[in-house]
Design goal:
This protein has 384 residues and is mainly beta. It has one helix at 2-23, and strands at 38-39, 51-52, 60-67, 78-80, 83-87, 92-97, 103-108, 118-120, 123-129, 135-142, 147-155, 163-164, 168-172, 177-182, 187-192, 202-204, 207-211, 216-221, 227-232, 242-244, 247-251, 256-261, 267-272, 282-283, 287-291, 296-301, 307-312, 322-324, 327-332, 336-341, 347-352, 362-364, 367-372, 376-382.
């Protein structure tokens, strides 16, 4: 009898240890200095800039491929120096050596990490949304000394992208709350919109803007979290916003691309694509590029909302592309990435994959990073 009781205790202990280990992060340890080159957040800036003012070739060659534990949301890699970071839906944030794709380490948590990890010098900031509870945990981790700095419980599931400013991070939750935390893990403000939200916020001229599931556009003051405006536009917004100067660009379930006044949320113009939009719009100096779930890609004049060109990819477009001077690098859920001519919309090249194209492409240090189901990250070099 004593033997049975002791074995029961042993198994209970082991079970508890396994659970504890599953919720405890492993480690990322990097020998880095502050002030090195980085790609710090989804869309590079709070306004979400997916434009890179360089010309690229139409041909690429594989540099390395790596596989992670879970699948991707529609996020992107971020980077610091010679290291690449990516989140997945199994609750992990991975770090790769950019030169060879070797896994340097990973932070492992319960729940799912929907948000692209944010880089602040030697710190990485991200949120994990719990599977069975309406909470998330906000994490601040220092990869120079491999130490978790802060863990903050957030009411609601964080499923959209972060904004990072010089001093703060700003994000919203599925239940419509918006939070601002400083880089020391302290809450600066919160605002409750009281409406379900699946639209990633953008920032411009000290105004945070995003859509909600009721088809409204919300504007908040970024410094104090004070309400500025709410405008009913149309159907639900699952598309994130992007900001250029005094204009917001965003698409919705009507299939419309909207240009809105940043200070008021009023419509300047709208363009009907004919099908639901989930990707964040991308822009250069003169054009807006947007795709819909029917696989149609559009170039629209930024000032007038008039069509420049339309291309049918015969796929499903829901992740934002990368826009360069001459080429649009476009993820497709129909297991491919397209290289599309910026001026004409002609598909110059299509690269087939073994899974659905998920990650918004990033070029960092002349290397192209893409990702697809199930958890495959690839690094490409441009061929001459």
């Amino acid at each position: 009898m004593k033997y049975l009781i002791s074995m029961k205790h042993i198994f209970s202990f082991l079970f508890i240890m396994i659970l504890f280990h599953g919720c405890t992060p492993s480690s990322i340890k990097l020998d880095t200095k502050k002030g090195l080159s980085s790609y710090t957040m989804f869309g590079k800036t709070g306004g979400r800039e997916f434009y890179l003012p360089v010309s690229v070739g139409e041909s690429i060659s594989l540099k390395w491929e790596a596989e992670i534990n879970g699948s991707f949301p529609n996020s992107s890699v971020t980077s610091y120096d010679n290291y690449i970071f990516i989140n997945d839906l199994s609750g992990r944030v991975y770090c790769f050596d950019a030169s060879n794709g070797k896994v340097i380490g990973a932070l492992k948590h319960s729940g799912a990490v929907y948000t692209t990890p944010v880089i602040d010098e030697n710190n990485i900031i991200f949120a994990a949304a719990e599977d069975d509870e309406n909470i998330s945990v906000l994490y601040y981790y220092n990869f120079s000394n491999a130490k978790m700095l802060y863990e903050k419980e957030i009411p609601g599931r964080v499923m959209t992208e972060f904004i990072k400013t010089d001093n703060e991070v700003i994000f919203n939750t599925e239940n419509g709350k918006v939070f601002c935390y400083n880089l020391l893990g302290e809450k600066v403000w919160e605002y409750d919109t009281k409406t379900k939200t699946h639209s990633s916020p953008a920032l411009g001229n000290n105004i945070i803007v995003f859509g909600n599931d009721d088809g409204e556009i919300i504007g908040l003051n970024a410094k104090e979290g004070k309400f500025l405006f709410k405008e009913k536009i149309g159907e639900s917004f699952f598309c994130g916003a992007t900001v250029d100067n005094h204009t917001v660009y965003i698409g919705n379930d009507n299939g419309n691309l909207y240009a809105l006044e940043l200070s008021t949320g009023k419509i300047k113009w709208k363009f009907d694509t004919g099908s639901r939009i989930t990707m964040v719009p991308v822009y250069n100096k003169t054009h807006i590029i947007i795709g819909n779930l029917k696989g149609e890609l559009y170039s629209v004049n930024k000032e007038t909302g008039k069509l420049n060109w339309r291309t049918n990819t015969r796929g499903v477009l829901n992740a934002s592309p990368l826009l360069t001077e001459n080429i649009i690098i476009l993820p497709d859920l129909n297991e491919s990435y397209h290289f599309v001519d910026v001026k004409t919309g002609e598909i110059k090249n299509t690269y087939l994959l073994e899974g659905r194209g998920k990650l918004t492409p990033v070029i960092f240090n002349d290397v192209l990073y893409i990702g697809y189901d199930n958890g495959i990250v690839r690094a490409y070099e441009f061929s001459n």
